[in-house]
Amino acid sequence: MEKIQTFEQLIAWQKAQDLAVLSHNLTKKFPGDERFSLISQLRRASNSVSANIAEGFGRRTSKDKVQFYTIAYGSLLEVKNYLYLAEKLGYLTKKDMIESLNLVTDTQKLINALMRSIKQHAQTPN
Hints:
Layout: H1 11-27, H2 38-58, H3 62-88, H4 94-123
Helix pairs in contact: 1-2, 1-4, 2-3, 3-4
């Protein structure tokens, strides 16, 4: 398997970008009075996931990498929370919610795998 050279090659980052795009598109349909609250929070949290994956990739130590991937994971859970809230408020269709949660779940698994890989690599003697 070819070694990953850039953060853009990480599937976790790619999925996180897809989630950010989806979140931005979904929030375009939200009521205008949510512009400075739920819309802003959901967009910022979704943007944070891929940004922290990218930043973590650029860090030198395993500890630093895992810290940023952990922050990305926390932002991902924040996105999930806002999606549930948006659904309860009637801003998301069932179809949009299912699509969103599937993408969140895929991204969760990939970030977990990324962290596991970094931790295992750090414990492997050279």
